[in-house]
Amino acid sequence: MPGEPAFPSAAEIEASLELAAERCEDLTPLVYARMFERHPEMKPHFWRDTDDAIKGEMLSRTFAALLDFVGQRTYADHMILSEMVTHEGYDVPRQVFATFFGFVRDAVREAAGADWTVEFDRAWVELLAQIDDYIAAASAPLLQPS
Ligand code: HEM
């Protein structure tokens, strides 16, 4: 239906992001510590980013995309797909690209601390699954030989 949110638990995702923002001035170090722990081979790709500005910009664009993805979904689905292709130019494989959203969830959960709820957890599990499905579905035609 027009105007209806694309994602049923949008309110929980929004509330968890608001809570994390209140509790933690900058989630950038939390997110990237996780990323570099899991994918140390990605660290050299940020050689240009001497002041962490690119990392911060990438994260803030990701937050905006997540909010749009759970809300009106005016651009986020297309943006995620086009960034996935752009990132291949940075030598970031699709499988690695897709893991970023999970690191964001982990950082939000850490910032929320004891105020993280079962509802937040469920909403993020659903959101990450939807993004994975979207990426898989969107990638499939691209992966076929022309
Ligand atoms: C683990 C997964 C990811 C890795 C390793 C990664 C890596 C990178 C790297 C190395 C750059 C900088 C390129 C340069 O030197 O200019 C970059 C930029 C960027 N990334 Fe990611 N990325 C990941 C996931 C994502 C996701 C999921 C999004 C959004 C949906 C995203 C959005 C962006 C944007 C918008 C920029 C450009 C920032 C700017 O304006 O300079 N990235 N990414």
From TrEMBL:
UniProt keyword annotations, A-Z: Heme, Iron, Metal-binding, Oxygen transport, Transport
Pfam families: Globin
InterPro entries for the chain: Globin, Globin-like_sf, Globin/Proto, Mb-like_M
Stretches assigned to the Globin domain: 31-133
Domain of life: Bacteria
Family assignment from sequence similarity: Belongs to the globin family.
Protein name: Globin domain-containing protein
Source organism of this protein record: Phenylobacterium terrae
